[in-house]
Write a structure and sequence with these properties.
The protein is built from six helices and 20 strands. It is an alpha+beta fold. The longest helix is centred in the C-terminal third of the chain and has 19 residues. The N and C termini lie far apart (68 Å). Keywords: Cytoplasm, DNA replication, DNA-binding, DNA-directed DNA polymerase, Nucleotidyltransferase, Transferase.
């Protein structure tokens, strides 16, 4: 088989193996007459990839995780690698891919096909880099994604208990409004494995039809690769209208007011007419924050005299 195609396939699914459970610290390889399918699952994410290469003999083989990682990190510059199935001893088998020998585990792998949602009527098409950038900028235990016809938004409460919002670009969305909670790092890694563009399919029963994975799993799909990700069974974060830039402006205002309050700088505070004014410094440089409840617009002029 093409060594690079096989290594790339294993690279894309192996990050989603479980770290310790023997049956899940592995990749399921299913060989058919015209293709080979690879599946890895860590308990709340499941990655599945198909290549149009027949890797050895037909059948299902559970490949041990360490051997999979070893092979996936190699490069073959387009050359072919031999695939040899053989007995390791009287009770175990192994497969040799080029120079790497991988034990074949004798364990029951979950029936992943039973986890695939059957009713998917909410579909979003996105560019992954925009969502990945937003997820990287957030330090929070969980994030809530609002899917709607008006657009998608990311809500969160950070480690300092500050609530925030990031608007997420979406190329197309069809379906009902949905609110789904994810772990940000889990969702980021899942999107990173999908390539430049991905279709997100939210099941009809998500968050409304009980806690079973079959009802809640969200599908990420692109070309010959798809992934299931189980949302977190936690409360959706508070929905606020402050974006990241506006939150930084509020933080600046709090710091400036603190300096005036403690007498570190001279200043004057005026509130009225729907506006908040802060005058700071010996020469009284004016800064203005306009309030349109509950949103704050960017300051027209911000200068702090040292």
């Amino acid at each position: 088989v093409d060594g690079d195609k096989l290594a790339e396939a294993l690279r894309r699914v192996s990050p989603f193996m479980h770290e310790s459970l023997p049956a899940l610290k592995a990749v399921l390889m299913e060989v058919y007459p015209d293709r080979t399918e690879f599946t890895a699952c860590d308990g709340f994410r499941l990655a599945h990839l198909t290549i149009r290469e027949v890797v050895g003999q037909e059948g299902e083989f559970l490949l041990e995780g360490n051997g999979v990682k070893d092979f996936s990190q190699r490069h073959y510059n387009g050359s072919q690698v031999p695939v040899v199935f053989q007995k390791a001893d009287e009770s175990s088998d192994q497969v040799t891919l080029g120079e790497v020998t991988i034990p074949i585990l004798q364990a029951d792998y979950p029936d992943y096909k039973d986890l695939i949602p059957t009713d998917l009527d909410n579909i979003a098409i996105i560019t992954t880099k925009d969502w990945i950038k937003a997820l990287r900028s957030i330090k929070a235990w969980t994030v809530g994604v609002l899917f709607s016809q008006e657009g998608c938004s990311l809500y969160f409460v950070d480690m300092e208990k500050n609530a925030g919002k990031v608007d997420l670009p979406v190329q197309m969305y069809a379906g009902q409004e949905k609110r789904i909670v994810f772990k940000p790092e889990s969702l980021r890694k899942a999107l990173s494995s999908c390539g430049a563009q991905v279709t997100i399919k939210v099941p009809t029963a998500a968050k409304t039809n009980g806690p079973s994975p079959r009802n809640q799993a969200v599908v990420l799909e692109t070309d010959n690769y798809w992934m299931l990700i189980i949302p977190q069974d936690e409360q959706f974060p508070r929905e606020v209208n402050l974006n990241l830039g506006e939150r930084e402006l509020v933080k600046w205002g709090i710091e400036a007011l603190g300096s005036v309050l403690t007498g570190d700088v001279q200043g004057k505070v005026l509130v009225g007419g729907g506006k908040f004014y802060l005058e700071i410094g010996v020469h009284i440089t004016k800064s203005e924050v306009t309030m349109e409840a509950p949103m704050l617009q960017e300051a027209k002029e911000v200068t702090i005299a040292k």
